[in-house]
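To: structure subgroup
Subject: Chain for Friday's discussion

All,

I'm putting the inputs and outputs inline so they're searchable in the archive.
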Amino acid sequence: MTSVAGLPASVRVEVDGEVLVVLVDRPHKRNAIDDETILGLERVFLDPPDGVRAAVLAGTGDHFCAGLDLSSLGETSVVEGVHHSRMWHRVTQAIQLGRLPVVSVLKGAVIGGGLELASATHLRVAEPSAFYALPEGQRGIFVGGGGSVRLPRLIGVARMTDLMLTGRVYDAAEGHAAGLTQYLVAEGEGMTTGLELARRAATVAPVTLFAVLQALPRIADAGPQEGYLLESLMAAVAQGSDEAKERMQAFLAGRATKVTDTPAVGGAR
Protein backbone atom coordinates (compact mmCIF):
# COMPACT_ATOMS: atom_id res chain seq x y z
CA MET A 1 0.00 0.00 0.00
CA THR A 2 1.18 3.52 -0.71
CA SER A 3 -0.21 6.91 0.18
CA VAL A 4 -1.50 9.79 -1.91
CA ALA A 5 -2.39 12.88 0.06
CA GLY A 6 -6.03 13.80 0.43
CA LEU A 7 -7.65 10.65 -0.92
CA PRO A 8 -11.10 9.64 0.33
CA ALA A 9 -11.69 6.17 1.76
CA SER A 10 -13.45 5.26 -1.50
CA VAL A 11 -10.23 5.45 -3.53
CA ARG A 12 -7.41 3.02 -2.70
CA VAL A 13 -4.00 2.94 -4.33
CA GLU A 14 -1.31 0.28 -4.30
CA VAL A 15 2.07 0.18 -6.04
CA ASP A 16 3.17 -3.03 -7.75
CA GLY A 17 6.65 -2.34 -9.11
CA GLU A 18 6.23 0.32 -11.79
CA VAL A 19 2.45 -0.13 -11.87
CA LEU A 20 0.00 1.91 -9.83
CA VAL A 21 -3.19 0.01 -8.97
CA VAL A 22 -6.14 2.34 -8.39
CA LEU A 23 -9.29 0.87 -6.84
CA VAL A 24 -12.73 2.42 -6.53
CA ASP A 25 -13.80 1.05 -3.16
CA ARG A 26 -17.56 1.45 -2.68
CA PRO A 27 -18.74 -2.17 -3.07
CA HIS A 28 -21.93 -1.50 -1.09
CA LYS A 29 -22.90 0.85 -3.93
CA ARG A 30 -21.60 -1.36 -6.74
CA ASN A 31 -18.80 1.24 -6.83
CA ALA A 32 -21.14 4.01 -7.95
CA ILE A 33 -19.20 7.26 -7.86
CA ASP A 34 -19.98 10.31 -5.77
CA ASP A 35 -18.19 13.66 -6.05
CA GLU A 36 -15.66 12.80 -3.36
CA THR A 37 -14.63 9.68 -5.26
CA ILE A 38 -14.30 11.28 -8.69
CA LEU A 39 -12.23 14.10 -7.21
CA GLY A 40 -10.07 11.50 -5.47
CA LEU A 41 -9.40 9.85 -8.82
CA GLU A 42 -8.41 13.22 -10.21
CA ARG A 43 -5.82 13.68 -7.46
CA VAL A 44 -4.33 10.25 -8.18
CA PHE A 45 -3.96 10.74 -11.93
CA LEU A 46 -2.84 14.36 -11.81
CA ASP A 47 -0.04 13.56 -9.37
CA PRO A 48 0.77 9.82 -9.34
CA PRO A 49 3.51 8.55 -7.01
CA ASP A 50 7.10 8.82 -8.19
CA GLY A 51 8.47 5.77 -9.97
CA VAL A 52 5.25 4.44 -11.51
CA ARG A 53 5.01 4.23 -15.29
CA ALA A 54 1.56 2.72 -15.85
CA ALA A 55 -1.70 2.23 -13.98
CA VAL A 56 -4.51 -0.28 -13.56
CA LEU A 57 -7.98 1.03 -12.69
CA ALA A 58 -10.49 -1.41 -11.18
CA GLY A 59 -13.29 -1.69 -8.66
CA THR A 60 -13.40 -3.72 -5.46
CA GLY A 61 -15.96 -6.49 -5.08
CA ASP A 62 -18.03 -7.80 -7.96
CA HIS A 63 -18.39 -4.64 -10.06
CA PHE A 64 -16.26 -2.09 -11.86
CA CYS A 65 -18.61 0.87 -11.49
CA ALA A 66 -22.39 1.25 -11.61
CA GLY A 67 -22.11 4.88 -12.67
CA LEU A 68 -22.91 8.13 -10.93
CA ASP A 69 -24.26 7.76 -7.40
CA LEU A 70 -27.55 9.55 -8.00
CA SER A 71 -28.50 9.29 -4.33
CA SER A 72 -25.64 11.65 -3.48
CA LEU A 73 -27.00 14.39 -5.73
CA GLY A 74 -29.61 16.88 -4.72
CA GLU A 75 -31.67 18.99 -7.08
CA THR A 76 -29.37 21.12 -9.23
CA SER A 77 -29.82 24.11 -11.46
CA VAL A 78 -28.87 24.05 -15.12
CA VAL A 79 -25.68 25.98 -14.35
CA GLU A 80 -24.77 23.58 -11.54
CA GLY A 81 -25.37 20.66 -13.88
CA VAL A 82 -23.02 22.12 -16.47
CA HIS A 83 -20.29 22.62 -13.87
CA HIS A 84 -20.74 19.06 -12.57
CA SER A 85 -20.40 17.62 -16.06
CA ARG A 86 -17.34 19.75 -16.74
CA MET A 87 -15.80 18.47 -13.52
CA TRP A 88 -16.19 14.90 -14.80
CA HIS A 89 -14.67 15.99 -18.12
CA ARG A 90 -11.67 17.38 -16.26
CA VAL A 91 -11.15 14.12 -14.36
CA THR A 92 -11.57 11.80 -17.34
CA GLN A 93 -9.16 13.95 -19.34
CA ALA A 94 -6.64 13.64 -16.51
CA ILE A 95 -6.89 9.87 -17.08
CA GLN A 96 -6.91 9.86 -20.88
CA LEU A 97 -4.36 12.63 -21.40
CA GLY A 98 -2.21 12.09 -18.32
CA ARG A 99 1.34 10.77 -18.26
CA LEU A 100 0.44 7.15 -17.44
CA PRO A 101 -1.02 4.51 -19.76
CA VAL A 102 -4.10 3.24 -17.90
CA VAL A 103 -5.59 -0.26 -18.14
CA SER A 104 -9.10 -0.75 -16.78
CA VAL A 105 -10.23 -4.15 -15.50
CA LEU A 106 -13.95 -4.55 -16.06
CA LYS A 107 -16.32 -6.96 -14.33
CA GLY A 108 -19.95 -6.83 -13.29
CA ALA A 109 -21.65 -3.47 -13.80
CA VAL A 110 -19.93 -1.09 -16.21
CA ILE A 111 -22.84 1.24 -16.72
CA GLY A 112 -23.54 4.94 -17.15
CA GLY A 113 -20.69 6.95 -15.67
CA GLY A 114 -18.78 3.71 -15.12
CA LEU A 115 -18.73 3.11 -18.87
CA GLU A 116 -17.70 6.73 -19.41
CA LEU A 117 -14.87 6.26 -16.92
CA ALA A 118 -13.72 3.06 -18.63
CA SER A 119 -13.79 4.74 -22.04
CA ALA A 120 -11.21 7.26 -20.80
CA THR A 121 -8.68 4.48 -20.16
CA HIS A 122 -6.31 3.33 -22.86
CA LEU A 123 -6.75 -0.44 -22.63
CA ARG A 124 -9.85 -2.26 -21.39
CA VAL A 125 -9.86 -5.85 -20.13
CA ALA A 126 -13.19 -7.57 -19.45
CA GLU A 127 -14.15 -10.67 -17.52
CA PRO A 128 -17.25 -12.66 -18.59
CA SER A 129 -19.34 -11.09 -15.80
CA ALA A 130 -19.02 -7.58 -17.29
CA PHE A 131 -22.13 -5.93 -18.68
CA TYR A 132 -22.56 -2.51 -20.26
CA ALA A 133 -25.45 -0.06 -20.41
CA LEU A 134 -26.29 3.64 -20.68
CA PRO A 135 -29.48 3.92 -18.62
CA GLU A 136 -29.46 7.72 -18.74
CA GLY A 137 -31.87 7.63 -21.67
CA GLN A 138 -34.44 5.75 -19.58
CA ARG A 139 -34.03 8.13 -16.64
CA GLY A 140 -34.66 11.35 -18.48
CA ILE A 141 -31.05 12.51 -18.41
CA PHE A 142 -28.03 12.47 -20.73
CA VAL A 143 -24.45 11.31 -20.41
CA GLY A 144 -22.24 13.96 -18.85
CA GLY A 145 -18.83 12.40 -18.25
CA GLY A 146 -17.50 12.52 -21.80
CA GLY A 147 -19.39 9.48 -23.08
CA SER A 148 -20.94 11.23 -26.07
CA VAL A 149 -17.43 12.08 -27.29
CA ARG A 150 -15.51 8.90 -26.48
CA LEU A 151 -18.04 6.10 -26.90
CA PRO A 152 -19.00 6.86 -30.54
CA ARG A 153 -15.29 6.63 -31.34
CA LEU A 154 -15.25 3.13 -29.85
CA ILE A 155 -18.57 1.65 -30.98
CA GLY A 156 -20.11 4.16 -33.40
CA VAL A 157 -23.01 6.58 -33.07
CA ALA A 158 -25.61 3.98 -34.09
CA ARG A 159 -24.72 1.55 -31.29
CA MET A 160 -24.62 4.31 -28.69
CA THR A 161 -27.99 5.58 -29.91
CA ASP A 162 -29.43 2.08 -29.49
CA LEU A 163 -28.07 1.79 -25.94
CA MET A 164 -29.55 5.13 -24.93
CA LEU A 165 -32.93 4.87 -26.67
CA THR A 166 -33.81 1.29 -25.79
CA GLY A 167 -31.99 0.57 -22.53
CA ARG A 168 -30.18 -2.30 -24.24
CA VAL A 169 -27.55 -4.10 -22.17
CA TYR A 170 -24.46 -5.65 -23.73
CA ASP A 171 -22.93 -8.67 -22.08
CA ALA A 172 -19.14 -9.08 -22.04
CA ALA A 173 -18.98 -10.85 -25.40
CA GLU A 174 -21.29 -8.35 -27.12
CA GLY A 175 -19.35 -5.42 -25.70
CA HIS A 176 -16.09 -6.94 -26.84
CA ALA A 177 -17.43 -7.55 -30.36
CA ALA A 178 -18.76 -3.98 -30.51
CA GLY A 179 -15.36 -2.55 -29.63
CA LEU A 180 -15.76 -1.55 -25.98
CA THR A 181 -12.85 -3.75 -24.89
CA GLN A 182 -9.59 -4.94 -26.42
CA TYR A 183 -9.25 -8.04 -24.22
CA LEU A 184 -11.78 -10.61 -23.02
CA VAL A 185 -10.39 -13.06 -20.47
CA ALA A 186 -11.62 -15.88 -18.29
CA GLU A 187 -13.39 -15.22 -14.98
CA GLY A 188 -10.95 -14.14 -12.30
CA GLU A 189 -8.13 -13.37 -14.75
CA GLY A 190 -8.88 -9.67 -15.30
CA MET A 191 -6.46 -8.22 -12.77
CA THR A 192 -3.64 -10.60 -13.73
CA THR A 193 -4.05 -9.64 -17.38
CA GLY A 194 -4.43 -5.96 -16.55
CA LEU A 195 -1.19 -5.97 -14.56
CA GLU A 196 0.63 -7.82 -17.33
CA LEU A 197 -0.53 -5.30 -19.91
CA ALA A 198 0.40 -2.38 -17.65
CA ARG A 199 3.87 -3.83 -17.12
CA ARG A 200 4.31 -4.12 -20.88
CA ALA A 201 3.14 -0.54 -21.38
CA ALA A 202 5.59 0.59 -18.68
CA THR A 203 8.49 -0.57 -20.87
CA VAL A 204 7.59 1.73 -23.76
CA ALA A 205 10.18 4.43 -24.39
CA PRO A 206 9.15 7.80 -22.87
CA VAL A 207 9.08 9.67 -26.19
CA THR A 208 7.02 6.92 -27.82
CA LEU A 209 4.70 6.88 -24.84
CA PHE A 210 4.21 10.62 -25.13
CA ALA A 211 3.43 10.21 -28.83
CA VAL A 212 0.86 7.47 -28.18
CA LEU A 213 -0.89 9.19 -25.26
CA GLN A 214 -0.72 12.79 -26.42
CA ALA A 215 -0.19 12.96 -30.18
CA LEU A 216 -2.19 9.94 -31.39
CA PRO A 217 -5.61 11.11 -30.06
CA ARG A 218 -5.05 14.54 -31.59
CA ILE A 219 -3.95 13.05 -34.91
CA ALA A 220 -7.10 10.92 -34.95
CA ASP A 221 -9.22 14.05 -34.39
CA ALA A 222 -7.39 16.16 -36.97
CA GLY A 223 -8.02 16.45 -40.68
CA PRO A 224 -5.88 14.16 -42.86
CA GLN A 225 -3.34 16.78 -43.92
CA GLU A 226 -2.88 18.14 -40.40
CA GLY A 227 -2.68 14.56 -39.11
CA TYR A 228 0.03 13.59 -41.60
CA LEU A 229 2.10 16.62 -40.64
CA LEU A 230 1.78 15.96 -36.90
CA GLU A 231 2.65 12.31 -37.48
CA SER A 232 5.81 13.27 -39.38
CA LEU A 233 6.92 15.67 -36.67
CA MET A 234 6.27 13.15 -33.90
CA ALA A 235 8.00 10.34 -35.83
CA ALA A 236 11.09 12.50 -36.31
CA VAL A 237 11.19 13.44 -32.62
CA ALA A 238 10.86 9.80 -31.55
CA GLN A 239 13.44 8.47 -34.02
CA GLY A 240 15.92 11.14 -32.98
CA SER A 241 15.85 10.23 -29.30
CA ASP A 242 18.84 8.48 -27.74
CA GLU A 243 16.66 5.66 -26.43
CA ALA A 244 15.22 4.96 -29.89
CA LYS A 245 18.73 4.72 -31.32
CA GLU A 246 19.78 2.32 -28.56
CA ARG A 247 16.72 0.13 -29.04
CA MET A 248 17.21 0.01 -32.81
CA GLN A 249 20.83 -1.02 -32.35
CA ALA A 250 19.74 -3.76 -29.94
CA PHE A 251 17.24 -5.05 -32.51
CA LEU A 252 19.76 -5.01 -35.36
CA ALA A 253 22.27 -6.81 -33.17
CA GLY A 254 19.74 -9.53 -32.38
CA ARG A 255 19.40 -8.57 -28.72
CA ALA A 256 15.70 -7.60 -28.96
CA THR A 257 12.71 -9.89 -29.36
CA LYS A 258 11.08 -10.19 -32.76
CA VAL A 259 7.37 -10.04 -33.51
CA THR A 260 5.79 -13.50 -33.83
CA ASP A 261 2.23 -14.79 -34.02
CA THR A 262 2.31 -15.71 -30.33
CA PRO A 263 -0.43 -13.86 -28.42
CA ALA A 264 0.90 -10.85 -26.51
CA VAL A 265 -1.02 -11.86 -23.39
CA GLY A 266 -1.82 -15.47 -22.66
CA GLY A 267 -5.48 -16.43 -22.79
CA ALA A 268 -6.81 -13.04 -23.89
CA ARG A 269 -9.06 -12.63 -26.90
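Points worth raising on Friday:
Residues 11-201 form a domain with the 2-enoyl-CoA Hydratase; Chain A, domain 1 fold (CATH 3.90.226.10).
The beta strands are 11-16, 19-24, 54-59, 102-106, 109-111, 123-126, 131-133, 170-171, 183-184.

D.
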